[in-house]
């Protein structure tokens, strides 16, 4: 009888973990992204693709808002990364070249217990909807912590791509390399 209980306990423990655990926040973030893309598709707009650096910035900003209560927070308005007080820290941690953030937009919302339908509604039925309705936005980053969700929208322009400094350097070096090849070609003639 003891051996039966000993073999039954791990089985019970594994099932308890799977059935009683709360889904991870990343699943909620993916569901929000899917909901926003469904909303954009219904408006005949292209879907937003995940942007790694914007995702990092959204996560860092959500972490910074974590200790702020929904009641104490003023109604947040969309921001660019450069208008935020902790912008240098976020840009540095996420390796974002600050010159590539001016066309992007940051949209924080506070929803108690992050109820998925309410979070989506806070983006699609509020002043944030005008940004989701614009076709110039092509990328997205989503971060959430406690009652806060932050969405960062990016563009496919250099001023809104949230690109890293390394990308910008390779762009400059690549341009220099092409210039050298053309210069060599015309010099040899």
UniProtKB/TrEMBL annotation:
Keywords: Signal. Residues 1-26 form the signal peptide. Residues 29-153 form the Uncharacterized GPI-anchored protein At5g19230-like domain. The keyword Cell membrane does not apply. The keyword Signal applies. This is Uncharacterized GPI-anchored protein At5g19230-like domain-containing protein. It comes from Rubroshorea leprosula. The lineage of its organism: Eukaryota, Viridiplantae, Streptophyta, Embryophyta, Tracheophyta.
């Amino acid at each position: 009888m003891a051996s039966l209980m000993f073999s039954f306990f791990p089985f019970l423990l594994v099932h308890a973990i799977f059935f009683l655990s709360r889904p991870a926040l990343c699943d909620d973030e993916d569901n929000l992204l899917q909901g926003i893309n469904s909303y954009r598709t219904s408006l005949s707009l292209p879907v937003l693709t995940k942007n790694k650096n914007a995702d990092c910035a959204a996560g860092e900003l959500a972490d910074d808002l974590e200790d702020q209560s929904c009641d104490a927070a003023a109604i947040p308005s969309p921001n660019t990364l450069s208008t935020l007080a902790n912008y240098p820290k976020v840009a540095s941690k996420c390796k974002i070249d600050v010159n590539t953030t001016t066309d992007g937009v940051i949209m924080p919302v506070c929803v108690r217990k992050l109820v998925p339908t309410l979070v989506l509604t806070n983006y699609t039925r509020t002043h944030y909807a005008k940004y989701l309705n614009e076709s110039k936005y092509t990328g997205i980053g989503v971060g959430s912590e406690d009652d806060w969700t932050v969405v960062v929208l990016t563009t496919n322009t250099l001023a809104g791509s949230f690109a890293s400094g390394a990308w910008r350097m390779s762009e400059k070096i690549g341009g220099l390399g092409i210039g050298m090849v053309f210069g060599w070609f015309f010099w040899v003639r």
